[in-house]
# Entry
Amino acid sequence: MPNLKNAAVLCLVSFAIPAQAEETSAINQAIIAYNDSFNSTGSEKTKRLVQAALGFYEIEENGGADEAKFKAEYYLAQALYELGLSYSASHYYMQIIDAGAAHPYFAKAVEGAVKVAEAMHDETFVPAFLNKRYNKKFYLVPADALAKVHFIMGRVDYRANHFKEGTGFLSAVPKTSSYYALARYLLGLSYIPRPEQKWAGDPDKALKMFDEVRELQSTDQVVYADLEQVQDLSQVGLARVYYATGKGQFGSDGYQKSASLYHAIPKYDRAWHPGEPERYSPHWEEALFEGAWADFMNDDPGGALGKLQTLHSPALSDSFQPESWVLESIIYFQNCLYDQTRVALDQYDKIYLPMSEAIKPLIEESKDDEFYFNLVHEAQEGKNGLPTSIRLFLEKNEQYKSYLNYAGQLDGELGIINSTEGLRSAQMAKDLAEMIGRRRGLLVQSAGKFIKGRLANVAATLTGFEGQAEIVRLETSSSEKDLLERNDDPASRLGKQELLRPDVPDETYEYWAFQGEWWPDELGYYKYTLKNACPVETNTASGP
Amino acid sequence: MNTASKHLWVALALLPSFALAEGSVGVGVSEKETPTSKSESKDPTVAVSVNLTPPEPKQPANAFGESGPVELKHVVEIRPFTQAGRSEVALFGTGQVNGKFSSHYGLDIDLAYHIRESVGVWLGGSYVIYGRQSSLTDELISKAHEQPFAANALLMQWNAAVGLEMNPLYGKFTIVDDKVLHFAFYINAGAGIAKTRVQLRGNDNQQKDAAGNLAGPSFGDTGYRPAGALGGGVRIFLTPRWTLRLEVRDLIYSALVDKINGCSRADVGKVSQGRTDVASGCDAGAFKDSGADAAPDSNVKNAGIAQDLLSDISSDVINNLSFYGGVSFLF
# Structure
């Protein structure tokens, strides 16, 4: 319907064009074709849109009276968008935005650019462009589109660690906008203190934002984008804030609250129903890992080991979680169970040392951006030595997905241009193909650098944990030596301790003994009870 | 903080903040005793198949000597299927499994409310679509001219009962595609009433009606009996709302047969002689076959059979043991 409305307005305005007869005739023909496209379907619609786009392109390229050119420029973008050529459309929208508020279609072009960014899941190019061009004239942009612009700007600033500017933009997204939940979530993240970036943040506000998102509900008037997903993320955000504040803040134990929140992250994807093949929530793995830390800090080593057992289960064996083995070793170390500590460290060595070796050549050797851009895809086909865990880790990254989606859109546009009758042989098609090629080159550069950066990060992470594992190993040997020197008798201490079942909270839970079988429904619900071999006066079997 | 945790803090402080920023408070060791009981008896895991490959064994040899295992692994799982606070309607097909002198097949509908996960109340009723004396009884009558006491061959027409249900055990198994099915065993007990009758003319009798067709079996009403129900079964959760129900239920009802169609032996004798001077409460007309083609003397013949049945006043407690198979819906 909005397009029909635009078309109607366009029709009316076109009668008022007092330009040269030839130019008027050309643009009127393009306008008629454009308007006709709304009354057509299938190939007829495509034919009309191509006819309109070629007409607008001719005027836009070859000049003429400003008014006609302005109009041609905007409606060329609109026609291209309707043809499924989103990136090509964005080129002309951005051209109009570049011209500034003097261009009569400035506000509409901003709206169009936002629409393209949404359609292409573009988190890079249009956002970066809007970030550069944003000025006070943006008040001309319709309210809903402006709210989206503010969200986009806020996200750009957040990713650039410009938290102060980012919170300003994100706060400007009104509750009536479909981006409100996303904006509030990002605000919550922005308010988390970042000492390394010298940003004090405001944990109270962060909690408030996350809480608000969890309570939000779409209405008849506004449907919040990705609401359920954002609510899960907000829960993770809340858990992180409580964890970061530790004990003694917010009137209670932050670790305890954090652990409860992590535990409540849904295991299954929101769209999954019992009886269907298992499909896990995208946030579940990180909730397990971070929840294990929270349990550990909350004096619940049994809970922590249980979560780690899920992470190390066959179902999640391809999960990239090097720190999980180090954490496991620390938990055992904490309980003076040194043999178990060593087993965890050996598992780390067995799984992650080969990975560390495997990615070294991928980073150290001189490779171009194209190599990194194709790295993950080629790894899927077994064409390079990228370990599966790391490939999956890279694939899960939202920005990587955005790059991949963008590349797919560009390829799709080239496909449309080359296969559309009446378009493929036109000069406009050649120009558009060239533009798309240039953008793809830029995309490959950006994505390649991004993947290389992520890979370097993975390598650094592995190196870091190798060091941590070594420290724990040394500490273990040292502590064992201490025990021997003290003539301590851990065996009798362990022998006196009983291993009990963990508490079953209420009848909504059921108990099973783990007997080495991996039942899909049990993943995420493991709990250990373990003994403590440390020479302290009040040793007991620890449990939840 | 013990020695180990002090040492550990050095290690923790060096951990890169891969996912979480560490707090500034040291790490303590839990000194809580787990408030659990070892008397829980819920280990009914039915591991029909194992669907994922097990990991490498991680349990190391114990360097501390013979102190036994240092850890136990458990699963404390949110029930994938829950009953507590929900109502349930179940529809069963029923079939008697101990039919020595009788056969019963019918339908049963139960309504239950689960007060807790393991306790519920139920109200149910069965209607017997096919309730006849068994082929053994027919054979005894036709070949040996013997028949069981009326009490032994008492047939049930319908019953209704209320009772309690308990779910003491639960379990799960996997079927194709690693689909896990959860189930719960239950036992139930209840009390109610049963409507009964006795079969007069056998299933294979050759008597003909007025139109010359086989007259078929005939029945005499023996009234209402107090009944008890004792059962046990399994509820297999197909979805969170639908379950498959398999159950064996013993319906127990008293069977003192001293009257048929409200008539004592003396009155039945009179009816069998065509007399109508029977005591009040004796429904002499009930001995006559129903239908337009009923033989005019059917009441006399039926009453004659009834008189035989009442020749020895019999009493017994009938155990009508039936298999119930059906589905239920939780809401």
In short: Confidence is low (pLDDT under 50) at residues 1-61 of chain B.
